[in-house]
Amino acid sequence: MTYNVNDFDSLDVVNSDRNHVWHHLSQHKAYETSDPMVIVKGEGMRVWDAKGNEYLDAVSGAVWTVNVGYGRTEIADAVRDQLVSMNYFAHSAGNVPAALFSKKLIEKMPGMSRVYFSNSGSEANEKAFKIVRQIAHKKYGGKKTKILYRERDYHGTTIATLSATGQLERRAQYGPFVPDFVEVPHCCEYRAQEEADKDNYGVWAADQIEKVILQEGPETVGALCLEPITAGGGVIEPPAGYWDRVQEICRKYDILLHIDEVVCGLGRTGKWFGYQHYGVQPDIVTMAKGVASGYAAISCTVTTEAVFEAFKEDENPRLGYFRDISTFGGCTAGPAAALVNMQIIEDEKLLENVTMQGEYLRGRLNQLKEKHPLVGDVRGKGLFAGFEMVKDRTSKEPVDEATASAVQAHCMASGVIIGRTNRSFETLNNTICLAPALIATQADIDQIVDAIDEALTEVASKL
Q1: Angle, nearest 10°, between helix axes 442-461 and 401-413?
Q2: Of 290, 319, 347, which closes a domain?
Q3: Entry's CDD domains (predicted)?
C-alpha cells in the first residue's frame, strides 16, 4: 500500500494528533479545549493548516530552518533518488553525498577543513564539547576541560548543551548539570551592565570574558562557545570591537573558539556564516537548521585541520582517535538535500537578496519604533531581526511575556506567523523575532511588518 500525503481526513488528523502526539514546547492542557495546529502544506513562504487557513511564515518553520522556502521539488527529488540508490550506512564508511557536500561546504569556510556529520544542532554541539574534552586529556593531562558559554546564548536541548546555555528558564527543572561549564557575561549593548564602559562597550564586554578566564585559571579553560549573533536569547548582534577582542583573548590563552552557527549558518545573515561578518577564524563551527532547509535531518561539526590532527597519533591508537558515532550521521538524505540547498542559494543569489531585503526589513522595523512606544530596540543582521518590547523607553522596563505573546497571537490571527523569546528568562521574554526565508520579497516584508504594526496598535490600546 502506498501512503498518499494528500489523502487524509482533516478531522481525523487533528483528533489523532490531539490524542497521540506529544508536541515540542507545548502545554497540552490547552488542547483539552482547543485544537492543536496541524500544518499540512507549504509553498514558498506560505503554509496551510488542516482547517484550510493560510499563513505567511516569518520564522522559516517556527525555528528558523526552512531557509530556501517550502515546496522545493529539486531538493525532494534529490533526496528520493539518493535514498533509492543508497539510504544509509554507518558513517565509519563514507558515502557520495557526504563527500561531495563536505568539499562544497569547506570551500565556503576558509581556514576550516573537516566535517563531522550528525543529525541535530544539539548533537553537533555535543560533538564539539567531546572534542574539547578529549583534547584536554590527550594534550593537557586532563586539564583545560572547562568550556565557557555566554549569558543569553542557547546551544541545545540535551543536558550537556543546556549546561552551556545562558537562559535560566530553559534550564529550569533539568539540573543537576554537567560540571566545568562556566558562564561569561552577555554583550547586549541595549542592556549594558551598570558598570560597563558605554563608550567602548564591545571591547569592555569581551574583556569580561578574560576576567572569567583568569578567575577560573587559563590552564583549566579549553574552549569558548558563542553564537555569532545571540538568537533565541534576543537577537543580539555583538557591538563593534567585540569579536576582534574575543579572538585575541582565545589566542592569548590557547583556548579553542567554538562558534555555534546552528541559527545563523547557511545564509541567514547575508553571508554563508555569521562569523564571516567579523573577520574571526574559529577552531570549531557547528551548524544544523538551514543546512538542508528542513528537507532532511543533518548537522555538522566542522573543525580546522589542526583540531582534526590532534586525533591522529601512533602513541595510543586504541583510544586516541575520536571515539564517537551518530547513528543517523550515516543517513545520506541530509547531505543530498544540503548539496541542492547550497546550489539553490548560489543560483538564485539568495545571499544578495538577504542583504537587500534585510536592510529593508530593518528600515521598516525602525519605522515601527518611531511610531510605537512599545518598541524599545531594533536589532539583527540580514533576514534575522528582532525588537525588544518595553513598558517605558527611559527605564527600559520590559513588557511581561503575556504582552509579547498577545502581539504574536494577533499576527497569527491575521495570517502571519512571527516568533518571540519564549520562557527563556525571568523578565526578558520580550523580544519579537523574525527570520523569514532567504527568498523573501519586499512585498513579504511589508505584509509581515504591517501585521506587527496592527498588532502593536491593538495590544497597546488594551494596556
Answers
A1: 130
A2: 347
A3: OAT_like
